[in-house]
Each structure stands twice: as C-alpha cells, then as structure tokens.
Design brief:
Length: 342
Amino acid sequence: MEKELLTLGIESSCDETSAAVLKGGRTILSNIISTQIPVHQKFGGVVPEIASRKHIVNIMPVIDEAVKEAGVQLSDIDQVAVTYGPGLVGALLVGVSAAKALAFSLGVPLIGVNHLEGHIFANFLAAPELEPPFMALVVSGGHTALVRVKDYNHFRMFGQTRDDAAGEAFDKIARVLGLPYPGGPRIDKLAHEGKPTIDFPRALEEKGNYEFSFSGLKSAVLNYINSERMKGHELNLPDIAASFQSSVVEVLTHKAFEALEASGLDTLVLAGGVAANSALEARLREGAAKRGVKFYFPDRILCTDNAAMIACRGYYQAQAGMYSDLYLNAVPGLSLQDVGED
Ligand code: KG4
Ligand code: ZN
C-alpha cells in the first residue's frame, strides 16, 4: 500500500496562530490553535500590528507542538501547506515565511492555500464520506459567498457579497450593542433570550439573485437603535440581536437553497466562522430535511480558523500538482476565484 503523505498545515491570516499535521487527505493527527482573541478584545477588534507580533512569537512553538502531538518528527513531514491570503498582510507573512523556511530546509514541496478554500475543505475533515459536487455557503468575517464545488480542484463562484460580509455585520452590530469582540458568538447567545420582533430588511431577495448585501441591514439596525434612544426608550438587546440574526440567517438560507436548486445539486455544505452560528445551522438543517437534500457543516473547532483545513486543501492541491515555489508571497486581498476549467 502506498504510504499516506504527512502534510504540515500553517495558518496565520488573522488572530489565530495554528499548525496541524494531516495524514493522507482526511486524518487529523494534530490541530493546534493559539488564539489571540483575549489580546485584541480590549481594543474591540483585531489590531494588525499586535497580531503580527503575536504570530512571530507563537509560530514556531505552535508548529513544534503540532508535530509533537502528531507523534512524528519534522523530518517525517512530506509537504508544507500554508495560507497565503486573504488576510492581514503582516499576519500572513509570518506563516508564509515560516512555511517557506521549513519547506526549503526539509527539501519538501510548498503549497500556498487560499484561506477561503480551506474553510470549504474543513468539511472533508468533518465528514469522511463527503465528496464533490456540492454547493458551499462560505460565511466568514471577511467573506460571504456561494461556491459551486464541482470537484476537488474545480470551483465556480455563484454569488458573493456586494459590501459587508456576514461576520463583519455581526461584529459591527455587536460593538454597537456594547458586546465584546468577536461579536458573532455573543449575538448568537443573546438572540436565544430574545424574539425577532423587529422587522429589519432582507436585501436582494429577488429570485435568481445570488449576491448578498448586509450594509443596508447594518444601517437599519443602527438607525433603529438611535431612534429608540432619542425617544428615551430602553433598548431590548436580546430582541435586537434576535431580529438582526434572523434577517441575516433568513437571507443566507433562502439564497443557499435557491442556488442549490438552480445548480441541480443535492448537497449543501456550510463553511467559515459564521458556520458556528446555531440559528444558521438549525435553519439550514431544517431546510435540507424538508427538501430531502444532504447538509454538512464542520464541528465548531473546524468552522473557525485552523490549520487542519489548510493542510486538507493543500493535500488535494498537491494531488493535482498545484504546488508553489519559494517566491510565494502573502496576498492580503486574495478572493475566492474560479478554479479549474469548465
Ligand atoms: O472564518 P473566521 O474564523 O475568520 C475569518 O476568516 O474571517 O470567521 C470569524 C467570524 C467573525 O466575524 C465572528 O464574529 C464570526 O465568524 N462568528 C460567528 C459565530 N462564531 C463566529 N458569527 C455568528 N455566530 C456565531 N456563533
Ligand atoms: Zn477564516
């Protein structure tokens, strides 16, 4: 039997320093995540300079720990996969530099990975039976998109956001409500205590439109809060959280199923940090059961930024010979582009 390759994955695009060792395409031997959230919390968001410095301090210890926990030696690693975008440039550069140095010194191939593709591939780790084709709803702090995944190296963008990403909207509204960073999980929790009594807008709901827009919703929530304050009313924070969340979740759910139907696929996959949202997961699960389609989403630890998903994407890229050279650079504005030919 052919030896299963060991892939070292490295992720440092935002506020998590992570390293993972993967055996073959789907077996996680280790997935170490060192989060900087407590450091950035007092500033209400990620401070790029601080993030870069923390990554520099953390990167080698995190890689050492990943290798140790996997029960292997660095010299056993067959290839190194690293996030090269999108993300904060200084943060990305730390991971990219470490990965290049390791690949060069170990004499093994380097694989530059698009972070957003990594989020989609987290699903292969969570569900060993999952195979393309499927429709992926990618919802993170910086992106909201519907992507048709035809096979492991063949994606088509179905629609994305025109302005804010869903996670960004969660974080901004949370900040206005006085909740700490990151806002998504806080709103999720608060929404459980409230009811969606306020009618906030749902943008671009017309049939056949697979684009998203969350900036109008954000303004509507801010206007509502200001006008309630001016009237001297006390704000019902749980209801505001529940109403805002319900607007986001409804739009995401509605468009995801429309896109699935339009593409003739029978499998929907959820990816990105916002995939951890309990209401979104529940609505998609319900919708999938009603329509008789399959629905996958990763465990919470694989939803948010982690290196195992980067190693997984890297493994499948390498299978197709999609390697990088040692000139690989950080690309902060990298988007989820079409990959492969039709
Ligand atoms: O994918 P991710 O970890 O980082 C990026 O690549 O952007 O996503 C982070 C985003 C943040 O905006 C955070 O507030 C949001 O995911 N998030 C959530 C939840 N957990 C994390 N949003 C809504 N509900 C959650 N439970
Ligand atoms: Zn992410």
